């Protein structure tokens, strides 16, 4: 028997209500904050992610699905959402629009990882980007949207962590201090951290291995080495978050996993904290557009894994409205009745009702079992006697009662009874 590939999952009908619930809340928030939707291709030129995510990151080195097409061009299935949006911003001249340009998206993300709860090789992300403005008011707005999303979905007990990792002016000095600190501990940290020490020292603070945690705890903090511009940005961001009544805590070990982040980084975690539990993460990326060949252009955004949001909705028992509209069933006895039933169904559907007709060759008993399984309230029964009288029998499956009504008045009858 064929099964879905490891690290993927089918979105079954009974799960759809969670997906639509998250999407509705996210889209409404984007509308309220003036964001517009963008959709980018599922795959991009492989070089896009090497230039932006970072050639030394785990994503590029270990996790991307990269291949050559028949023309020999290297392509990569999208491993994250920000770089493609920034590529589209440049390609379509969005720098000529009023800044910042506010964009949101829903998209599948592909990473070759060890599957676990809320973490898949193909997962889905809601994300947004505000490109073209460096003021920390935009940072606060982006964080506010992320926080409001989790609250309006009904999630409880979450924590928002923020940090500043500086910029190209002040970060080099911090990295020098960080490497000096770690130099005396290299023989005790994990193998990956020894590689990070040489290629991407900031990621030393992001290691999830237990053996490395004591050394992370004693490491110098980036906020102690901020230049005057970054320090002002950091202080103003905290002021704006307080004005917006957004609760936060400063986490000096928070760095995020991609090379393009600068200054503000943030994450939202559920009560069950852990290395893979983050449900929203993002930050500022003021050098990313320039890395793609554009003029220096500030930007900030976040991504939220929809599977993780749904996992937490289920864990916390959040009540999610049903998407499924239980249909009216039309049970027909005989070919002539079945033909009349098809006509009735067409009229009811034009009026906006959901209608299902079981296959014509089934017995009435079989059709009624089918009606019960579909969970519809009303079943319309049509046979030779009803055809002769121009009527139908309507059975209320909830009340266990039935009534004969004129076929011409069926729509009005159903509408009136449904409103009770």
In order across it, which strands form the biggest sheet? 1-5-6-11-10-9-7-8
Percent range for helical residues?
25-40%
Strand content: 15-25%
Give the tally of structural domains. Answer: 2
Roughly how many Å apart are the termini?
47 Å
Largest sheet: 8 strands, mixed
Task: Name the poorly predicted regions.
Answer: none
Write the topology of this structure.
Blueprint: H1 16-32, E1 36-37, E2 43-45, H2 46-54, H3 58-63, E3 66-68, E4 74-77, H4 82-91, E5 101-110, E6 122-131, H5 136-152, E7 159-164, H6 171-183, H7 191-199, H8 213-217, H9 228-243, E8 249-250, E9 262-269, E10 280-284, H10 288-291, E11 299-305, H11 306-315, E12 328-332, H12 335-350, E13 355-356, H13 364-373, E14 378-382, H14 384-389, E15 391-396, E16 401-406, H15 410-418
Parallel strand pairs: 1-5, 7-8, 12-13, 12-14
Antiparallel strand pairs: 2-4, 3-4, 5-6, 6-11, 7-9, 9-10, 10-11, 14-15, 15-16
Helix pairs in contact: 1-5, 5-9
């Amino acid at each position: 028997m064929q099964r879905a590939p490891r690290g993927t999952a089918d979105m079954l009908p009974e799960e759809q209500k969670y997906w639509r619930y998250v999407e509705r809340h996210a889209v409404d928030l984007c509308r309220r904050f003036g964001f517009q939707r963008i959709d980018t291709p599922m795959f991009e030129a492989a070089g896009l992610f090497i230039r932006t995510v970072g050639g030394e990151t785990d994503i590029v080195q270990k996790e991307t699905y990269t291949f050559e097409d028949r023309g020999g061009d290297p392509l990569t299935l999208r491993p994250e959402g920000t770089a493609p949006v920034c590529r589209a911003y440049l390609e379509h001249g969005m720098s000529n629009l009023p800044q910042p340009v506010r964009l949101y998206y829903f998209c599948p993300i592909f990473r070759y990882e060890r599957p676990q709860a809320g973490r898949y090789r193909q997962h889905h992300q809601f994300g947004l980007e505000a490109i073209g403005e460096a003021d920390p008011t935009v940072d606060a707005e982006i964080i506010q949207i992320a926080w409001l999303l989790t609250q309006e979905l009904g999630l409880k007990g979450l924590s928002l962590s923020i940090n500043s990792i500086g910029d190209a002016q002040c970060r080099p000095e911090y990295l020098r201090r960080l490497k000096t600190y770690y130099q005396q501990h290299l023989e005790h940290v994990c193998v990956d951290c020894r590689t990070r020490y040489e290629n991407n020292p900031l990621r030393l603070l992001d290691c999830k291995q237990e053996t490395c945690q004591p050394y992370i705890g004693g490491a110098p903090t980036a906020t102690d080495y901020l230049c005057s511009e970054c320090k002002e940005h950091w202080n103003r961001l905290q002021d704006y978050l307080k004005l917006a009544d957004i609760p936060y805590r400063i986490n000096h070990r928070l760095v995020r996993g991609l090379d393009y982040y600068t200054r503000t980084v943030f994450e939202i975690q559920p009560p069950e904290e852990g290395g893979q539990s983050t449900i929203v993460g993002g930050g500022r990326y003021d050098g990313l557009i320039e890395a793609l060949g554009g003029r220096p252009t500030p930007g900030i955004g976040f991504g939220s894994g929809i599977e993780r949001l749904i996992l937490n909705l289920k864990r916390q028992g959040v009540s999610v409205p049903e998407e499924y509209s239980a249909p009216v069933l039309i049970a027909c006895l005989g070919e002539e009745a079945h033909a009349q039933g098809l006509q009735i169904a067409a009229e009811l559907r034009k009026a906006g009702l959901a209608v299902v007709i079981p296959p014509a060759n089934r017995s009435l008993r079989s059709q009624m079992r089918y009606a019960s399984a579909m969970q519809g309230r009303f079943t319309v029964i049509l046979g030779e006697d009803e055809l002769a009288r121009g009527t139908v029998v309507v059975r209320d499956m909830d009340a266990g009662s039935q009534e004969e009504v004129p076929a011409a008045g069926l729509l009005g009858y159903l509408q009136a009874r449904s409103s009770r």
